[in-house]
Amino acid sequence: MAQIELYTTPYCPYCIAAKDLLQSKGALFTEIDLAVHSDRRSEMVARANGRMTVPQIFIGAMHVGGFDELHELDQTGKLDSLLEGARNQL
Question: What would the pLDDT profile of 10-67 be if each residue is shown by its tens digit?
């Protein structure tokens, strides 16, 4: 089962935009709020190859990156196929 995971912090406008975009696509995701789960920041950094900014977005084993990369995938039509692949693996 491919899982969509977002590492976020409250009030981060890019985190909010990423969640809004995924919700508009009907995608279910797990949000890991680093303000609540600060112990998971090192996990995020390791999974994101050293990136420390939020959001960090993962679809299955694929590290998408941040909101800019998610938005680019949407603009180029690649996000829908990634999300469809995630739905097919449920």
Answer: 999 999 999 999 999 999 999 999 999 999 999 999 999 999 999 999 998 899 999 9
Task: List the one residue out of 77, 37, 73, 74 whose CA is nearest residue 54.
Answer: 37
Per the structure, the count of domains in the chain is: 1
Which secondary structure element, helix H or strand E, spans residue 64, and what is its range?
Answer: strand 62-65
- Give the tokens for residue 67: 């909101």
Residue 33 burial by Cβ neighbours in a 10 Å radius (0-12, 13-18, 19+): middle
Q: What is the CATH number of the domain that holds 64?
A: 3.40.30.10
One-letter amino acid at 83 equals L
